Amino acid sequence: MAISPTLLPVAIVVGSAVGIYLCGRTSSDMGVHDHGSIVWDEFVGFWITMLLVPVMEWQAVLAGFVIFRFFDMVKPWPISWLDKKVHGGLGIMLDDIVAGLMSMIALWAGHHYFGWW
Hints:
By secondary structure, the protein is mainly α. It has one domain (7-114). The protein has helices spanning 7-30, 40-49, 58-74, 79-85, 88-114. The longest helix has 27 residues, at 88-114. The radius of gyration is 14 Å and the shape is globular.
C-alpha cells in the first residue's frame, strides 16, 4: 500500500504544530514535563520515520517502528541534549521529531544499502 506523497508530509507538519500546543498544554495541566501518557509526539516521530518508505509493507513498518523506538529510548546526541535543554510543548515534540529524522535516515539506509524488506 502506498501513502500519498503529499498526505504524510502535511500530516507531519500539522501534527507537529498541533502537538506543540497540545503536549505543552497537557504537560502544564499535569505539572509534569513529558509525562509517559503523552504519546502524540511518538506518533509524529514515527510518521517522520516512515516518510521515505515508498511502499508500506509490514517488514518496513516493523523495521521503522523498532528503529524509532531505539532512538526514542536510547536518546543519543542530539536527542538527549534537546530532551534536557528544550522545554514545554516544543521540547516534548522536538526530541521525537529528531528521533524520527534519525530513524528515517537509518531506515532509508537499511533499505538502500542492505536491501531490508
